[in-house]
Structure formats: C-alpha cells, structure tokens
Amino acid sequence: MSFDGSFIHSMKQELADLLQTGRVSRINQPYSNELILTIRAHGKNHQLLLSANPTYARVQVTKIPYVNPAVPTNFAMIMRKHLNGAILTEVNQLENDRVLHFGFTGRNELGDQTKLNLIVEIMARHSNIVLVNQPDNKIIDAIKHVGSDVNRYRLLLPGATYINPPKQNLQNPFTKTSFDDVKQLIKDYPNVDVLAGSLQKTLQGLGKDTASALANTLHKNTEVEKNFESFFTKFNAAVPTLSHIGNNKINFTAFPYPDTDKNDHYASLSELLDAYFATRAQRDRVREQGAVLIQVVKKQLKKNRTKLKRLKHDLQETENADEYRIKGEILTTYLNKVDRGMTSIELPNYYENNAPLKIKLSNQQSPSENAQKYFKRYQKLKSAVKFLDEQISLTQEEIDYFENIQSQIELAKPEDLVDIRYELEQGHYLRDHEQHKKKKNKRQKINKPEKFVSTDGTEILVGKNNLQNERLTMHTADKRETWLHTKNIPGSHVIIRSFDPSQTTIDEAANLAAYFSKAHDSSKVPVDYTKVKNVRKPNGTKPGYVIYDNQQTLLVTPDEKLINKLSQTTK
Fold this sequence. Notes:
Blueprint: H1 5-19, E1 23-31, E2 34-41, E3 44-51, E4 58-62, H2 74-83, E5 87-93, E6 99-107, E7 113-121, E8 128-133, E9 138-142, H3 180-188, H4 192-200, H5 208-218, H6 224-233, E10 241-245, E11 249-253, E12 261-265, H7 269-289, H8 291-317, H9 321-333, E13 344-349, E14 355-360, H10 367-411, H11 417-426, H12 434-437, E15 450-453, E16 459-462, H13 466-476, E17 482-486, E18 494-496, H14 503-515, E19 525-531, E20 535-536, E21 547-548, E22 552-556, H15 560-568
Antiparallel strand pairs: 1-2, 2-3, 3-4, 5-6, 6-7, 7-8, 8-9, 10-11, 10-12, 13-14, 15-16, 16-18, 17-18, 17-19, 19-22, 20-21
C-alpha cells in the first residue's frame, strides 16, 4: 500500500486524459491539509482532490462529498484569486518522484495572461501543495509554510524561489535502457526480500510493495530485460486493483501484483482510491476536527468511572449495617451489665445461639448513649444505601451516555460532529464557542439522518447522533413505520419508511443498526425492532434515550459491503 512514484506515473496519465484542457470552476479547502478543485472538462464536473495529509497524502478525482467550512481559509482565498477560471494545460511528474505538477493558464486582475504551476509533493509528513508563478518560479503560497528554522535547503514561503525536493541518486525505471546493474543485483541477492530492498536503493519511485512485486517478477526466469520492461509497461495501462494480503490487510495497486488474491478491480485509479481511503481518511478527519469532543468525552468517562468505583466501594461498606443494629439491640437488652467508663464488653448474641459478641464502648458516654450510637450508625448506613443506589444508577447512565457519544464519534462523518458538539454544549459539558454565543437564542438546525435504500427499493433512515436519533424517531417517523435499535448496546435509531416492510428490508435495516452501533466490529449482534408507536421517551431523559416494548429480536453480523451497497443505491 503505497502512493509511490510508479503509482503516480499511472495516476498522472489518468488525470491528464480526464482533466487536461478543463477549466477551474470552484476551489474549496474543506480540511486543513486538503484542497479540492472542481474542474469542468469534456462536459463534466470533476472534483480533483489534492491532499497533503501526513498519513493519506494523494492526488485523485473523488466522488466522496465534503462539507465546506463557513469561512474559507487564507490559502483557499489565494487559490481562488489566482486559479478561478484558469485552464489546466498540462499534468507532469518530476521524473518518477512523488511530485506532480499541474500547469495552468489564467488571467490576472488586469486581464494579462498568467502561467501558474500547482505542485503537489507527496512525501508523508513533509507533503505539501505549492502554487508557483511559472515565469520567475516564485512561490505564491503553500498549504504548509516551511521556514529556514525547519529546512535550510528550501523555503516554502510566499515570495521564495521554488526549489525541487533534493534529488536522490536513483534511476528512473521508465527511461532505463541498460540492465547490467539489475542482473548483477539478481545474482548478488537471490533472496526476493533482500533483492526488493536493493532495488529500492537503485530505482526511483518504488514503494516497498512495488519493489517486492518487481523482485518476484525478475525471479520468474532469466529474461531480466523483458521481465523488467513488461512490469513497468503495465503502469501505462493500469488495471486498478484492490488486493487482499495477509493478516486481513488490503492493498491498492495500479495492476494485480504477484502473490495477491481476492483481487477487486475498479474502473479507474480514482475510484480505487475512493474505495480504499473513504473510511480511513474520514476517520482521520473526524479525529482531527473532533479532537476537542473526543477529549471531553474521555474526560467525562474517566471521571464517572472513578466515581462509580468509589460509590460501589461505599455501598459495599454499608453491607455491615445490620451489625450495628444487632450491637445496639444487645446493648439495650443488657444495659444493666454495662457500666459507665467501660471501653468494651462481651455479651451473648441471641441472634447467634448466644455466642459471645465483643462490643466496643466509649468511656465518655453512658450505657444508653453507647446503644443509641450504634442505632444512629445503623440508620445512617441504611439511608446511605438508598442514596448510593440512586447515585450508582445515575453515574452508570452518564457512562452509558458518553460511551454512546464515543461510538457516535467513531462512526461519524465530519459534518455529523456539528450536532454532537451542539448536544454537548446544550448539556453544559462543553463551553460554547464564540460563534455559538452569538446565536444562543437561535435554535441550531440539526443535520438530516443518513439515507439508505434497501434492495427492494424501501427507504431506510439512520440517525448518526443523539439529536438526529430523537428528531428521527419522535418527530419524523410515522407511528406505523418500523423502528430498529441494537439491544442494550449504544447505537443509531433506524427507521424503515414502510408500514409493511419485507423481511429482506428488515434484515438489511438490522444490519445498518448493528453497523452504526458500538458493536459494529462484533458478530451476531442482537437488534430489536418494533413499530414506532411502541417507542416512548421518558420525561427528563437525555437526547436520544427511549424505551420500547412489543419488540422482536434479530441476530446479525454487520456487513460493510452491504452497507456500501445500500448507500450506493441512494446516489
């Protein structure tokens, strides 16, 4: 799994064929390290995603929707100023390195023609997106500013001269004509893994998996030159492949590599990357944008779990309450045997066949006062039991609530975080931000639940957080429709928009309920379903909390492929 130079070679061709001569119609920066250019080419709009994400840096055309921030960043504004309306004239790769150049021609404020280069450097945490003025090679702006304190060799700051990343002394495999060195490597390193490592040090743009695939290909027979050229020729006619490898891992490649199985093929490299990165990149964006929410939830869970432990310890101590009552009663019975000033006495315990019972006394109190002291301790502990039971119940509810929020964040899309943030602010778990303070009196609009369509065409709605769940179940759904939820497990409310759904639709809706729950990685998840009329919300409970009856239960194993299929149907 590597977006290496060789994969970029294939991607460059795909993007050039699809986008070249297209016009930039829109520019957005939905996430801090990612830019999306909407390019109108060959009668269609295409979303070109340029990502400098440290973990998921890549370039592709994406169909995954995104939410644009209310206020554009300075970088986005500069990109709009220079690239809006510009024509994409060329797409080039720097040799076989992980650097793509997008050449644009446009017009400035005076109407003069400009030539610009948008450069994407795909280098893990050093990835960057840089806009350069072609004539003088001066940087207009970069998505990540890199000053001399970070890199003395090359500055990535507005006004600085753009310098290519340091060139490695490696050969471009696509222009290589002599193969004596490769033959020597095969002779010196008969082990495939060792050979793969040596090839990475010799050839430019080979990730670990590509080097391993090349080493396997070269070991097929003695026709080194033919095998080498055959391998790299395949990058010119890509067969986008998602392969299953060991340890339940998957890998994306420009064509099927040796020693892979369960290969799934896609129509384009961009579709392949959408399939591979959709969930992974989304989780990363949620972690980035929801960092404050995640921190608040973790803090609340830690606090309440500590409190619950302490309450249970206190409750355990109240189990000795009867001991104080018994001692008080025995003292009262044998008051005539107790003298003032005694510190202890041994009396027959008529609750235990008159076995001797040692009772501590205060020498400052009378016999009667000593007896009353034991009765008071008994009453205090007896009252504490009721209080502790109530507190344990309330604390457990808080833990369940925040575990539910935690699972919602794990399964959330970036746009779902707005509702979760608002809910935590309303519950006074999170301090209102300034933009919310200005709108305190204005009720925030809750996002719509996610829509799916079953295989028989029935609409299924899924709430992605507590506010959506409550709106969906208590206000949107018809009382005659079917409601689903995981049994005793935090999760989404699911509504089948049919008065008489088929069993297939119920099964698919149950799969959705299991997938969008805390048990989404489990098997045989119990899911309850009943009519909406049987679902009620008790007064004073937190958002999304309901009780229900007359339910039936299904056991389902969440199936991500089925979820994607039901989601695809809606597009």
